[in-house]
Amino acid sequence: MSDITTPRERAITSYLPDMPLVIWMVLLAIGMGFYSGMSAPEVIRVFNTGFGSALGEFALILLPSFALAAALSRQSSTPAKGLAAAMSPIAGAGMICPDTAYAALSPIAGRQKLDVAFGSYAGFKLLFPAGPLIVATGLSVTDPMLPVYGLVLLVPVWLAGSLWARSINAVPAMSAENISAPVNLQSFRPLTPFAVLALLLLTGAAIDLTNTPVLDFLTLPKGALLVAATLAMFDCPSAHRRTCLESAVRRTGSLLLVIGAATAFGAILIQVISVSALFPSGTGLMGVLSLFALSTLFKLAQGSSMATFAAVAPVAAPLVTSSNISNVAAVFAICLGSFIAILPNDSFYWLVRRDALSEADSDGRAIWVLTGGAIAQALTGLILIGTATVAGLI
């Protein structure tokens, strides 16, 4: 979900009535409740309990995350040309939007625009405080090693997208104007909030601060995000701070509605369908593949990666809780499923199509480049997570 608007394209569900995802989830939840034989008061009770079960936690994550993203988008300092690709995963995660990260870095990326695109996409899906934190909150997972697993996955997954682009000759050849300018220390200024965020999270993982509640809060993801957002806001021009905060409130409000509806849908779903029906083996590789497929279906149906994170995790939470799937595997199976695919119903497609792929001779070629790369990234990550699950490493 982003503030960037693009032409509306036909989605997979375009043959159905044209309604937002949140409306579908509300109607399906109520319909499933009555179909299963629940009374009207019971349907309302379960829906109400599910709707509000995690909104407070999500508000504590999304408000500072979107404030951080808005402040970073108004930074006056610009990374050096040579840092554009290297910073793209961090920007994708920190700005909580691959679209915004790509738009900020592509003007200085030269021939590496597709590297920036796949890096922004991978960072948003795999790094804190974006995909893994949002999904983990929806699943009620608090493993302090999640940021580390995301970093481990990032490099091979990002590389898979970049190698795909080169294998089909989508990256332009080196030319004189593509040579990077020297890197200076000012180029690293936008990274300061992320460095502080990482330091606080590492401190929280290494030291038990439960006896000092304020420090304990500030070294948890929610508190560390608040500190990082505050730093970014102070570095933002004062005239823009109110605008940044209002943008954060708008984006958070719309997502909280999606999350509430998805959580209510999940609460009723688990009353209607048994866990064994959705997770045949209840654990292991089949559970990972089931979550990957569920996330893929949501992504293909409505395009938005953020809405996919917001909707899938609350739906899957009661299923994961009732099974023996590894928490880490569950989080990243959902994140990796959301990679598939970068299609015309995704705003990111149009942004990259009109910039890095402006010379592509057809939309088919652009889809081949972007969707092929996204699938390569998803399958690379899935193979790594699946292997680790089978080997008992996670």
Automatic annotation (TrEMBL):
The chain crosses the membrane at residues 21-38, 50-72, 121-142, 148-167, 188-207, 213-234, 255-279, 285-313, 325-345, 365-393. InterPro entries: Glcn_transporter (IPR003474). The keyword ATP-binding does not apply. It comes from the Bacteria. It holds the Pfam family GntP_permease. Keywords: Membrane, Transmembrane, Transmembrane helix. PANTHER family: GNT FAMILY GLUCONATE TRANSPORTER, PERMEASE. This is Permease. It comes from Parasedimentitalea denitrificans.
